From TrEMBL, chain A:
Residues 247-365 form the Beta-Casp domain. The gene is LOC125509304. Keywords: Hydrolase, Nucleus. This is Cleavage and polyadenylation specificity factor subunit 3-II. GO terms for molecular function: hydrolase activity; RNA endonuclease activity. Belongs to the metallo-beta-lactamase superfamily. RNA-metabolizing metallo-beta-lactamase-like family. INTS11 subfamily.
From TrEMBL, chain B:
It comes from Triticum urartu (Red wild einkorn). This is Integrator complex subunit 4. GO terms for biological process: intercellular transport. InterPro entries: ARM-like, ARM-type_fold. It comes from the Eukaryota. Gene3D superfamilies: Leucine-rich Repeat Variant. GO terms for cellular component: endosome. PANTHER family: INTEGRATOR COMPLEX SUBUNIT 4 (PTHR20938:SF0).
């Protein structure tokens, strides 16, 4: 039996994650993402290739199930297209938080695409609604019998709220698809967590295949130091952030620090953020980190103690404060409005995320230290405030990938969701350090993995008795060894037993003793006796023995 | 074996067998451990997880019993190695535990001379378990790592850094020729601590911090890098982790492997301001024993401590920390001392206030520097020492030891003063080493025992200080003639300050002693002032009332000493009576009035003193003798001529030595369910009942206690029958509703209530005509309690509005 792995997306690139694995005739599609960099047909995975192996079938019959790991668009973006446009009507699995948050993301993206860029609509609002109706929610460590043979199970992956690693098993063949994961916990999400499983294949992301990140503590410390210094000097801190993830992470960090240092300076959230995101985070406590789970019975950490209600007029108020505002890269909206007001004072501070898209103000601020930013021909901003950059990535680093791979010890590894040169570097490491064959196929390539097959065999009573008597005979010898001074040999010995494996068609395999076999076959035993011969006659004697064996 | 049976009854039966083996092995000491180990090892490789786990715990039990020698440990270790990668969490946990145990045994053997490479190997193996997915396994792995005794530096450094350190020496890839299996090479230790301190579970973070600190003694380079990680842990959101981090840092400091760098100071000074007092204390404890390489850091540490002192004035132990910091950095302190001396010299009188925490702190540091300086290399200006004498109590607290005499004389000597040194043992600087950084291995235990004895030491310190203060007062008294009065007064003032600072942390009988000494000092101070007044030619320049007030104050002090302490011994009683005598004499000499009452009192006191000294156990003082003589002679014509100055000159202070059994009589007075916000209501003109809760400490049944209630001009005394109180002499209490009759015609008033004790001189009563109050002078037993009343009419009017 083999596992055939067809990589439809995220092969040697980041974007449109989609892997179709065929395990013992069952097809599972892991993730169904879209590529944000492309605006033509390349934006979706080439679904037609799935059907190439089975001509004449439609998607519903060809694919047993679709499993989505988390709500990021490069993992879920193509799902409405696949179900509503391509016509897949089979089961779709995702975790509860993913199911809750995915429609928000999809609808947001659809609006941006259609309303702002004026592109042709790929799927409508109704399509998203219909698509989500087909989704079957999953819980962590819940084993789902998709059909008679196929079993799937989700494990906690960190990364974002509701992210999961998926374990799939058909017969003896088992594999894990990690999706995106994080091996180090942050303030509001835990680290990826999985059991020790017997795996034939591990498909892992490799965003940071080569980088080893240093401790996040240092980054947090620098961030807190910068913020504290700014507010104690009477300055205002602007933290542009996305609604989900980073904002909550930083706010927990600040809220804790405020509590400990007994600071009374207000922290504000611009309205859009609090209402939706915090509500979901409060509801989905079970999917957050241990610390939050421990403390929420007493106090929900997303009810931030030091966060105050914000009103637009506060922008111009004097005195220090901290403000979270969307969007994260100061590409427009409220964070731009605040930035315009606050940038000209050198007392103030702007903290930027680790990555900003080219063309945004965030990007301009990161590249060099501009003193003046032109918004358009007439308006420009004098930038005198301090800039602090805080990289914050929920992906695991190379060390984490190696740790997970070593822990799971699969027979084979496939790398996806990364860049080619780094992937090849990691492949070398996995092969040399862990001794596992490793692949990193490009898009639309297929990798075939041989799987182990366990065979159940029964043993006859006589065989077992003979084994145990042999063991008993060896016993005293061993104890002698132990009494000796050096014992290293004592448990190096394997308990060997000799027998004959009998495999017949349409019957279970069996282990027998020698004489039982003869009985079964109704044959008589022949004995071969050796006699010392002269060198010149050895050749003849050998042929005799061969003949004897043949007759037996 | 029947196939079906084996399948239907899997693990448990086998597990039971293994479980039986385990305890059995551990209980029967006479049995052959080799046989047991052999049996358990074979079970440990069995098919069923439960059985494997039980076999491993059985092995651990056996291993604990056997000694390090022989092949038993190797045997266990080899068996465990395989099971570290088991699928079952429980087995991995048991396996890690067993490896930890093996490591201990190996270490024991190593002390006898074995190969150290094996320790590295075990360390790597445990490290690889520190990244396990199971929390318990991680905790256990770090636990086992903390116990490692000798690990090579390369491996340790690798455990801190996620990046793989390439080493040129052969020790990295293979350990002395022994080839490592591919999975168990250097990288498996990579960054386990970096991960450990970032773990999701605080239990893991705590234990990782502990291990980080515990291993620091093995390598200096490692210790420095570990410090970076530990410093970051100060930002952890769980308090337990922060405290463990501080504990780890303290351990490192104790072993002398903590060297603070400039980049850590910001973080560290931040913790000195932590909202949690336990964290602050722990941080200071570290600062007291750490080594700061630069003057700048030293100064910023001082600034941090001083700022802490201003923000949290209750943290008095900061002075102790300042002292030990100063002592550990002699040359830096000398620098501070020089600047301070300049500041002191520059400041004109009154400008430099010793009360300022900053000055006190800097004095502490400056004095400390000279302490460890045996060769007298450091040049500490003498002016520092003379200013530091008032801080004597704090310094002795910081030193936490008995040698008070020597300390004080040391300070005086350094200050260049000759001060009844004959009585005091000369100090030797080398005797004081309580806080200095020591690098000896056994210090840890010493530090722990110090903590236990501190409480006891506190009491001893207080006793010693009290004795010395009394000596000082006596010395000052003697000096009145030769020196100017101002100097004596300032000595007395500082002594009193000292007593007050000692009293802050005292309780029980110690606090009674201190409060008695405080009253005693008050009395002496007042007598000195009165003497000064009398000596002035034109005493009326200050108005007649001043002396009057002083005399009144002196009376109160004496009364307090006389009546508010139970268990005064004969010596103290005589002293108190002599004070009383002196007070009366002062009155007589100043006003010349001589009512019969006063003379009666005088005679009663003289007789009483006589009586006390009658049995010869205590000699009558010159002063008493003189007074007795004068009054026996003069009383005949009824107008005694008193020259107070002669009396004062022969009046002698004898410092009391024995304060055993002394207890303060105190009282607590409370009124239930009322305060200024919720006043009681009354109808004016009509009596109002007030529910008082009263409790009295150390009163005897013949004490006469009154409740005094004052509202404006009207005073009402209520006698309290002590038989109504519940409890014993030590502590009795009672709740009673007591009416107050003279409610004023006002819409609201404040009733000032107070418990007072009658202060009788024999049977002589001052207010003999019965007006319902106490017969004699009274002394307050507690502070006055304000009870607020509002007229019921006013209240109703407010409601109706």
């Amino acid at each position: 039996m083999t596992i055939d792995c067809l990589v439809l997306g995220a092969g040697q690139e980041v974007g449109k994650s989609c892997v179709v694995a065929t395990i013992g005739g069952k097809r599972v599609m892991f993730d169904c993402g879209m590529h944000m960099g492309h605006h033509d047909h390349q934006r979706y995975p080439d679904f037609a290739r799935v059907l190439a192996a089975t001509p004449g079938a439609d998607f519903t019959s060809a694919i047993s199930c679709v499993v989505i790991t988390h709500f990021h668009l490069d993992h879920i973006g193509a799902l409405p297209y696949f179900t509503e446009v391509c016509g897949y009507h089979g089961p779709i699995y995702m975790t509860y938080p993913t199911k809750a948050l995915a429609p928000l993301m999809l609808e947001d993206y659809r609006k941006v695409m259609v309303d702002h860029r004026g592109e042709e609509e790929q799927y409508s609002y109704e399509d998203i609604q219909n698509c989500m109706k087909k989704v079957i929610p999953l819980d962590l460590k819940q084993t789902i019998q998709v059909d008679r043979d196929l079993v799937i199970r989700a494990y906690y992956a960190g990364h974002v709220l509701g992210a999961a690693m998926i374990y799939a098993k058909v017969g003896d063949a088992a594999m894990v698809y990690t999706g995106d994961y994080n091996m180090t916990p942050d303030r509001h999400l835990g680290a990826a967590q999985i059991d020790h499983l017997k795996l034939d294949l591990l498909i892992t992301e490799s965003t940071y295949a080569k980088t080893v990140r240093d401790s996040k503590h240092a980054r947090e410390r620098e961030f807190l130091k910068a913020v504290h210094k700014c507010v104690s000097g009477g300055g205002k801190v602007l933290i542009p952030a996305f609604a989900l993830g980073r904002a909550q992470e930083l706010c927990i960090l600040l809220d804790d620090y405020w509590e400990r240092m007994n600071l009374k300076i207000p922290i504000y959230f611009s309205a859009g953020l609090t209402i939706q995101a915090n509500m979901y985070y409060k509801m989905l406590i079970g999917w957050t980190s241990q610390k939050i789970k421990d403390s929420y019975t007493v106090h929900n950490p997303f009810d931030f103690k030091h966060v105050c209600d914000f009103q637009r007029s506060f922008i111009n108020d004097p005195g220090p404060c901290v403000l979270f505002a969307t969007p994260g890269m100061i590409s427009g909206g409220f964070s731009l409005e605040v930035f315009k007001r606050w940038a000209p004072s050198e007392k103030n501070l702007v903290t930027l995320p680790g990555y900003c898209v080219a063309g945004t103000i965030g990007h301009k601020l990161m590249s060099g230290k501009p003193t003046r930013i032109d918004l358009d021909k007439e308006t420009h901003i004098d930038v005198r405030c301090q800039i602090h950059q805080l990289s914050f990535s929920p992906h695991t680093d190379s060390k984490g990938i190696m740790d997970l791979t070593e822990f799971l010890s699969p027979s084979h590894v496939i790398l996806v969701h990364g860049e080619k040169p780094q992937m090849s570097f990691l492949k070398e490491r996995i092969e040399s350090e862990l001794g596992m064959p490793c692949y990193y196929p490009a898009n639309n390539e297929t990798v075939s993995i041989p799987t182990t097959k366990n065979l159940k065999i029964s043993a006859t009573e006589k065989f077992i008795t003979s084994c145990s008597t042999a063991q008993a005979r060896d016993g005293p010898q061993k104890s002698n060894l132990i009494c000796g001074n050096h014992l290293s040999g004592a448990n190096g010995d394997e308990k060997l037993a000799e027998g004959i494996l009998l495999m017949e068609k349409s019957k279970d395999a069996k282990i027998l003793c020698e004489d039982e076999l003869l009985q079964l076959l109704g044959a008589e035993g022949h004995s071969v006796q050796f006699e010392p011969l002269l060198r010149s006659r050895i050749g003849e004697a050998e042929t005799d023995i061969v003949d004897d064996l043949a007759s037996e | 074996m029947d196939e079906g049976l084996a399948a239907s009854e899997p693990g448990p039966s086998v597990a039971k067998r293994a479980r039986f083996m385990g305890p059995h092995a551990s209980s029967s000491s006479g049995a052959d451990p080799e046989m047991e180990i052999q049996a358990l090892v074979s079970m440990a490789s069995g098919l069923y997880p439960l059985a494997r786990a039980e076999a491993l715990s059985g092995l651990a039990a056996v291993l604990k019993k056997v000694n390090a020698g022989g092949g038993v440990v190797e045997c266990c270790y080899a068996c465990t190695e395989k099971l570290l990668r088991d699928e079952d969490e429980g087995i991995r946990l048991a396996a890690v535990r067993l490896v930890g145990l093996c490591a201990e045994k190996f270490a024991m053997r190593e002390e006898l001379g074995g190969d150290g490479d094996q320790m590295d190997w075990v360390f790597l193996q445990l490290s690889s378990m520190a990244r396990d997915m199971c929390t318990e396994v991680r905790i256990e792995a770090f636990n086992a790592l903390a116990k490692m005794q000798r690990v090579s530096e390369g491996v340790l450094l690798q455990s801190l850094s996620k990046k793989i350190i390439k080493t040129d020496t052969g020790s990295a890839s293979s350990i002395k020729g022994k080839k490592l299996p591919p999975k168990l090479s250097f990288p498996c230790a990579a960054g386990i601590f970096a991960h450990g301190v970032e773990d999701e579970f605080y239990q893991v973070r705590t234990i990782a911090c502990k291990t980080l600190g515990a291993l620091a003694k093995l390598s200096n380079q490692y210790a420095q890098k570990a410090l970076d990680l530990l410093m970051d842990m100060m930002n952890d959101d769980i308090e337990a982790v922060r405290l463990q981090t501080l504990q780890a840092l303290f351990d490192m400091a104790t072993y002398g492997c903590l060297s603070m760098q400039e980049k850590h100071m910001h973080m560290f000074l931040g913790i000195l301001m932590d909202a949690n007092v336990v964290v602050r204390n722990a941080a200071r404890k570290i600062l007291g024993s750490v080594n700061l390489p630069k003057l700048q850091m030293f100064k910023s540490a001082l600034d941090g401590l001083i700022a802490g002192l201003k923000k949290n004035p209750e943290d008095q132990d900061i002075y102790g920390v300042l002292f030990s910091i100063g002592k550990n950095h002699g040359s830096f302190s000398a620098n501070i001392a020089k600047h301070l001396a300049k500041e002191i010299n520059m400041a004109s009188d009154g400008e430099l206030i010793l009360d300022k925490p900053r000055i006190k702190a800097l004095l502490m540091v400056s004095v400390s520097a000279a302490y460890d300086d045996k060769d007298k290399k450091l040049d500490i200006p003498t002016v520092i020492f003379s200013h530091a004498i008032p801080l004597f109590g704090m310094i002795s607290c910081a030193l936490a030891e008995d040698e008070q005499d020597s300390l004080l004389s040391y300070l005086y000597r350094q200050a260049g003063m000759q001060f009844w040194e004959k009585k005091l043992v000369s100090a030797e600087g080398g005797d004081y080493e309580c806080f200095s950084v020591e690098t000896v291995g056994g210090t840890h235990a010493q530090v722990e025992t110090t903590g236990k004895t501190t409480k006891y030491l506190d009491e001893v310190v207080i006793k010693q200080s009290t004795r010395i203060i009394l000596e000082t007062v006596k010395g000052a008294w003697v000096m009145i003639k030769p020196c100017s009065i101002g100097e004596v007064q300032s000595t007395l003032r500082t002594c009193k300050e000292e007593v007050n600072s000692l009293a802050v942390n005292s309780s029980g009988s110690t606090s009674a002693v201190l409060s008695f000494v405080c009253d005693y000092l008050d009395a002496v101070q007042l007598i000195v002032e009165i003497w000064w007044f009398i000596q002035l030619d034109d005493s009326h320049a200050f108005g007649p009332t001043s002396l009057d007030i002083l005399l009144e104050k002196l009376d109160t002090s004496v009364r307090r000493m006389k009546c508010c302490y139970a268990g005064l011994n004969r010596e103290l009683e005589v002293q108190v009576l002599e004070f009383a005598l002196l007070a009366i004499l002062c009155r007589l000499s100043e006003f010349g009035t001589c009512s019969k009452l006063v003379l009666d009192k005088l005679h009663w006191i003289i007789n009483h003193i006589d009586g006390l000294c009658a049995d010869g156990s205590y000699e009558l003082s010159d002063f008493s003798k003189e007074v007795k003589k004068v009054f026996d002679d003069n009383f005949i014509d009824g107008t005694p001529i008193v020259n107070i100055c002669t009396f004062l000159e022969i009046f002698d202070l004898k410092p009391a030595r024995d304060f055993e059994m002394l207890n303060a009589t105190t009282a607590v007075l409370q009124v239930r369910d009322t305060d200024s916000e919720n006043p009681l209501s009354y109808v004016y003109g009509l009596p109002v009942g007030v529910a008082f809760d009263m409790s009295l400490c150390n009163t005897s049944s013949h004490d006469r206690i009154w409740l005094r209630m004052v509202a404006g001009q009207s005073v009402q005394h209520v006698f309290l029958d002590l038989s109504c109180f519940e409890g014993n002499d030590k502590m009795k209490s009672c709740s009673r509703v007591i009416p107050f009759y003279a409610t004023p015609m006002a819409c609201s008033f404040v009733l000032r209530a107070c418990l007072v004790i009658e202060c009788p001189f024999g049977s002589i009563g001052t207010h003999q005509e019965g007006h319902g109050g106490p017969r004699d002078c009274v002394v307050q037993l507690c502070d006055e309690l304000d009870v607020y009343f509002v007229s019921a009419d006013t209240e109703q009017r407010q409601w109706s509005k």
